[in-house]
Amino acid sequence: MSKRIWILTMFPNFFDQFREVGVVGQMFQGLRGDKIELCTLNISDFSPKGFKGVDSSPYGGGPGMVMRADVLKSAIIDGVVKQGGYSEDFKDELKVIFTAPRGITWNNKVCREFSNRYFSSNSNTDLVFICGRYEGIDERFLEKYVDEVYCIGDFVLSGGEIAVMSILDSALRFSEGVLGNNESAKYDSFEQNLLEHPQYTRPSSFEGLDVPAVLMSGDHQKIQEWKNKKQVAMTQKWRPELIDKEK
Predict the structure, then answer these.
(1) Which residues does 216 contact at the CB level (< 8 Å), separation at least 6?
(2) Choice among 37, 45, 70, 188 that is catalytic
(3) Is the model's pLDDT at 146 over the cut of 70?
(4) How far apart are alpha carbons 67 and 58 in whole angstroms?
(5) Separation CA 234–CA 230 (nearest Å)
(6) What letter would DSSP give residue 218?
(7) Which of 94, 97, 172, 205 is the most exposed place for a label (fewest CB within 10 A)?
(8) Can you give the pLDDT at residue 246?
């Protein structure tokens, strides 16, 4: 059986294009790397009152609504565990992940470690992502059922779907066979705390700007030296804190 990623969301349609396009979409279709099945469940289907029963007003007052712990528990137990055929002790088979400002900052290093842990060929753990909405999720559900929390930046989204897609897209790129050239990820920005060097393609001249002559010289050593030098220059100009981090 292929690995499965479960998404619990109020809006499953968010993921329709995600599973169909690009290199990650091709992975979900079994056209690249090890096939991974992307399963979406609508949280509303596990509420007795449907869409209107997913949330309620917060105890203690305050603006907005909070997603109910009992509805989310039902989505996991009746939706993921029972439909997916997992055992009652599903904690050994599933990791439940949530995105929130309190989480571990999602960066290239964390992303690589996550990918190695869950998307390597010897990983047997399936994943469940909870897409929060409104003011958040009842803390009791987070304490009882969520294993890992990640934050993709110091800003607030209207829902967790985009954060979950960002995490999956970035982590699955590191999975064997997803990129057309497995060497590509090694030269991406943030590897070795540097930005990627500038890229050029045809035409060789564009609005008075020519491609650097060294790139068309055929001298591989000089080309590599140019790329290394430009990586440092680009980083010093746009993200100098990355170089400071390396020191």
Answers:
(1) 204
(2) 188
(3) yes
(4) 9
(5) 6
(6) -
(7) 205
(8) 59
* 197 close to 227: Cβ distance less than 8 angstroms: yes
Task: Give yes or no: 101 in active site.
Answer: yes
Token representation of residue 195:
């930005």
Instruction: Name the catalytic one among 101, 102, 147, 210.
Output: 101
pLDDT band, very low/low/confident/very high, at 25 (cuts 50, 70, 90) = very high
For the chain, give the mean pLDDT. 95
CA atoms within 13 A on the CB side of 128: 26
Mind listing the pLDDT tens digit for each residue in 79-109?
999 999 999 999 999 999 999 999 999 999 9
State if pTM tops 0.90: yes
**Is 173 tagged catalytic?**
yes
Residue 188 appears among annotated catalytic residues: yes
Q: Which of 45, 70, 135, 191 is an active site residue?
A: 135
Identify which of 44, 9, 164 has the alpha carbon closest to the alpha carbon of residue 100: 164
User: 37, 3 in Cβ contact below 8 A?
Assistant: yes
